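[Automated response] Your request has been received and processed.

Submitted sequence:
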Amino acid sequence: MPARSHPDPDRPPRSQPAVDAGRAARCTEAIRDIAEDFVVRAEELLHKTHNPDTPATDLVVTVAELGRLTEEATAALVVRQRSQGKPLKELTPALGLTEDRLRKKYHPQDVDLRLASRIRPRHELPGSRLPEDTSGPPSPKNRLREPGQRLACALTLMRAQSRVSQRVLAGRMRIDPSYVSRILSGERDASWQHVLAICDLCNGDSALMKPLWEVASNVPPTGGDPTRYLHTYLRALRYAAGSPSTETILASTQNTIAAADLRQAFDGPGAPAWLVVRTITNALWGLPDITLPLWRRATACQETSLPAEAFG
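Generated structure:
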């Protein structure tokens, strides 16, 4: 009977788990989501700090939530490192924990459950939404009017018009095709980097998409001209609705507004009356409570820019 071979005493024992590509991919997607959520919370914190009257307790709550997001990201990164078959010792200097502690603290199955059950933050920035009617549950039709769905519709139309397949789009963006599919369906929130990439690859207008993305992501409006921002947002809603003709839009409003009102809403000069903006928003599958703050910013800008003689 041949003698049994013994392990080489000079060869270190295997301490890393077998590669688990599926788990590593799930962790990568979770890290991406957490990074987007971190931006949402960081924007919220920045917004709060601009108000000197914000209670310290409110700031601490947001900071604590940022800390929890950091811990979730750390857990996903540690498990991804293990799932890729890479040594945990590469992470120990930055995290200040031993390899043994990382293994015990971030067990793959436990982290899987945590990541699968996490609730993504969707905190409203003050003044970002002013609901006009909150009675009753949202209907499927109203859900199609949600900002995230309007952005998804616009991106889907952009991709279809470009004839770039979702698989090709995913390959060029270096993300999984299923992730692209969920972005385009509105099931998954799109980061601004995702929107920019889709616009670039599909030869779309990123400036038109920006107000849709900012509204969907609860990001305060950017840009120096509130009136132009309102025009762009309404044009973006029109694009997301399939770019209906002037005649189609007027017919959907039962001709309660004029073609001149429509031109002013999309191109100026100035901003039309709220009743006009509200009617157009409804016709283009938007939500008036989203457009109202944008209209108020635009009209406030117009009032402050009037010459002194306009006030007598």
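Summary generated for your ticket: Confidence is low (pLDDT under 50) at residues 1-16, 123-141, 305-312. The chain is about 65% helix and 0% strand.
If you did not submit this request, please reply to this message.
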